[in-house]
Amino acid sequence: MHVADRLAASIDATGSVACVGLDPRPALVPPPVRDAALARHGDTVAAVAEAFLATNRGILDAVAGRCAVVKPQVACYEAYGSAGWDVLAATVAHARALGIPVIVDGKRNDIGSTAEHYRDAVFGGAPGFSGAAVADGLGGDWVTVNAYLGSDGVEPFLDDAGAHGVFALVRTSNPSSADLQDVVAGERSVAEHVADRVAAWGETRRGTSGLTAVGAVVGATWPEQARALRARMPDTVFLVPGFGAQGGTAVDAVAGRRPGSGAASAAGLVVNSSRELWGAWQRADAPDRWQAAAATALDAMNRALGEALDAGAGADGPA
Amino acid sequence: MHVADRLAASIDATGSVACVGLDPRPALVPPPVRDAALARHGDTVAAVAEAFLATNRGILDAVAGRCAVVKPQVACYEAYGSAGWDVLAATVAHARALGIPVIVDGKRNDIGSTAEHYRDAVFGGAPGFSGAAVADGLGGDWVTVNAYLGSDGVEPFLDDAGAHGVFALVRTSNPSSADLQDVVAGERSVAEHVADRVAAWGETRRGTSGLTAVGAVVGATWPEQARALRARMPDTVFLVPGFGAQGGTAVDAVAGRRPGSGAASAAGLVVNSSRELWGAWQRADAPDRWQAAAATALDAMNRALGEALDAGAGADGPA
Questions:
Q1: Burial readout B214-243 (b: 16 or more C-beta within 10 A, e: otherwise)
Q2: Does B23 contact chain A (CB < 8 Å)?
Q3: Beta-strand runs (E) in chain A
Q4: d(Cα A72, Cα B302) in Å, to the nearest integer?
Q5: pTM greater than 0.95 (yes/no)
Q6: Measuring CA to CA, which residue among B130, B112, B111 is closest to residue A26?
Q7: In sequence order, which residues have a C-beta less than 8 Å from that of residue A187 and are 6 or more positions away?
Q8: What is the pLDDT of residues B29-50, one digit of tens each?
C-alpha cells in the first residue's frame, strides 16, 4: 500500500490529524519511570535509555488509535550514542506493532551515493559482503529530509512503488528560518522554489488517495505562508511542526489545509506536538498517571484541530 | 586551542591539505579483512562492523602524519544501526589517539533546541537525570551542517572558546546542487547568501591563525564558484569534496584557496578524497598491502595538491 494512502487511512480510522512527537529528554521522563531507571542503573546512559524506551512504549500504548502518526526526533536518541539508536529502533518497532505509521525525523541530506546509505539507515537494506541486505534499518514509513542539495539528495529515499516517503523541509517553524527561506529569487522565495520542486517530485508518486509520497514540512508559526505554499503543492501532505510549545495555534496549524471538506485525510496535513504530549504528566495531578495524561492532552489537541478544520472547511465551502 | 588553529597546525605539521574520507562500504573492504570477518561472523552486521573498524584503524595508522584531517561519513555507519554507531565512535577515538583532527560528516540540521541534541551527539555532553553529562558523544572536532534553517540551526554547534567548529554546506559537489544553490536572488545566488551568513557567523569566532570556526563546504566540481565564494568568505576554511572520484582535479580542488603564498595552512582549505584512498588496494598489486596502498595513494594526492597550491600561489603573487 502506498505510503500516503497508509497515512490517509490512519487519519480516517482515528479521526485525528495529530502527529505525536517522541522527543525524549531526561527532564521530561515521568518521575516513576525515572526513579525506577535510576534505582537500577544510577545516573548513566543505561538509565536514560531504559527510561526513554519505557516512556515511549507507554506513550505509544496510550495514543494508539487516537493519532494519525508518530514522529521520533532522531537527535534526542543520537545524543546517547549506540544505546540511543537501539531505543530509537525499538520505539519504531513498537509503533509499527501497534499499527501506527512512523515519520523518522532526521532531516537527512547528502549527495546521491551517500543519501542511499541514509535511506538504508531508515528503511533498511544495507548490504553485507555478498551484496544481500543484512541490516533492517529503523523501519520507518517516512523520513524528513533537507532538500538543499536538490533532487540527488531526495530521490534515493523514494521508490517506484511508493512504499516509503519523505517530508522535505520547505518553511521551518524556527525564528531564523527567514534567514534563507524567505530570500526572494525572481518571483519566488527560496521556500517557494523548494515547494515547486517538492510538487514536481511528487507528481509521479501519487497514491490512490491523491496524496503523494513527497511531503513538505511547513511550520505552524507561518500560517500565511502555509496558505500560499498550499497553492503550489496541492496534493502534498504537510507535516506541521510548531504547534503548541513553539507558539502556533490550532487555527494556524491547519492554515495549509487543502480546500474543501470531506474525510479528515482530505485536508492533506498532519500536525505535530511533542513536549506537550510526552511531558503532559507535568500538568497532571498524579505523575503516575502519565499515560492517561498524554492521552488526555492528545484528545484535547484532536478536538482543537478538529474544530479548526471544520471551521476552515466551512470558510472554503465544500470540495 | 581553537579548532581552526588545531587544523592549521595539523596542516603545517604534515605539509598536507588532504582530508581522508572514511566512508566504509562492504565492497571496498580489503579482501583479507573481509575474509577474516566473514570467517568469524558469516555475512552479518557483526562481520561488516568488525571489518569496517579494522580497516579504518589500519587506514588511520597508515595516513597518520601524512594528512591534515579525517572525515568519517556518518551515513555509512548509521546504515548498520547501533553496531555502526559503535564503529563510528571507535573510529573517531582511534583518530584522536593518533592526534588527527576529525570532521564528523553528518550534515546535521534542525531548529535550535534540537540542534543542541545533535551537538551533544557529536561533541558530547548529553545530560542524565541530574543534568550532568553522561554521554561522551562521538568526540569530533568539527561537524558538517546544513544551514537551510538559518542561524538557529548552526549556532548551537558553536561555543565561545572555539573548541569545536562546523562546516556549513554552501556549494555542494553533486550534479543537482544547482537546483536550489544557483537560484539567483537579488544580486546573489542562494549559495552566496549562505556564504555571507557563514562569513558573518565566523566573524567573532576567529583563531590566532586568522581562520574561523565556521567553515564552508565548497565542491571541487565548481572551481569558478569556489573563487567567487572565497571573495565572500576570506577567512573561512573550505572543506572541498568532489576531488577524484567525483571528477574534480587538483587544480579545481584548490581553486578556492586564499590568495598569496606562505604556510600550507594559509591557503585555508582541506581537500577530501574517500573512495580512492580507502579503496586504494583495488589498484595495488597485492590486496594484503592495503595499508601501504592507501599511504601511496595519499602521497600522490598530496603531491598533486602541493603542486596545484604552489602554482596558484605563483599566479596570485606573494602575500
A1: bbbbbbbbbbebbebbbebbebbbbbbbbb
A2: yes
A3: 18-22, 69-72, 103-108, 142-145, 165-171, 184-185, 188-189, 214-218, 238-240, 269-273
A4: 43
A5: yes
A6: B130
A7: none
A8: 999 999 999 999 999 999 999 9
Best CA proximity match to A274, nearest among B111, B132, B109: B111
pLDDT at B318 over 60: no
Q: Mutate which of A148, A173, A272 to disrupt the B interface (most B C-beta within 10 Å)?
A: A148
Q: Which residue of B has its CA nearest to A176?
A: B150
Looking at residue B285, its pLDDT comes to: 85
Query: How far is the alpha carbon of B248 from chain A, nearest alpha carbon, in Å?
Result: 15
Please provide the CATH number assigned to the domain covering A3-311.
3.20.20.70
Q: Best of B50, B155, B180 to disrupt the A interface by mutation (most A CBs within 10 Å)?
A: B180
Structure-derived torsion over alpha carbons of residues B117, B119, B120, B123, reported in degrees to the nearest 10? 170
Report how far Cα A277 is from the mean position of its chain's Cα atoms. 14
Instruction: Select the residue of B27, B132, B149 nearest A176 (Cβ to Cβ).
Output: B149
Residue A313 has a pLDDT of: 65
Cα angle, residue A39 at apex, residues A33 and A41 outer, rounded to 5°: 95
Q: Do A115 and A153 meet the contact criterion of CB atoms below 8 Å apart?
A: yes
* CB nearest to A147's CB, from B153, B180, B241: B180
The answer to whether the CB of B104 falls within 8 A of the CB of B74 is yes
In our burial notation (b when 16+ CB lie closer than 10 A, e otherwise), range B189-202 reads bbbbbbbebbbebb
Q: What is the pLDDT of residues B212-226, one digit of tens each?
A: 999 999 998 889 999
> In this predicted model, what pLDDT tens digit does every residue of B150-173 receive, in sequence order?
999 999 999 999 999 999 999 998
Residue B314 predicted with pLDDT over 60: no
Options A107, A227, A275, A289, the catalytic residue = A107
- Name the residue ranges covered by the structural domains of chain A: 3-311
Q: Per-residue pLDDT averaged across B255-277, rounded?
A: 94
Task: Report the alpha-carbon distance of residue B299 to residue B141 in Å, rounded.
Answer: 24
Q: Facing residues of A52 across strands?
A: none
Q: Is 1.20.140.10 the CATH number for B3-309?
A: no
DSSP 8-state class, residue A216: E
Query: Which chain A residue shows the shortest CA-CA distance from B154?
Result: A176
Q: Do B183 and A193 touch (CB under 8 A)?
A: yes
Q: Region A14-29: what's the mean pLDDT? A: 98
Is the CB of residue A129 less than 8 Å away from at least one CB of chain B?
yes
pLDDT above 50 for B237: yes
Tell me, what's the pLDDT at B212?
98
Let me know if A71 is a catalytic residue: no
Cell numbers of A242, please?
510548531
- The Cβ-side half-sphere exposure at B204, using a 13 Å CA radius, reads 7
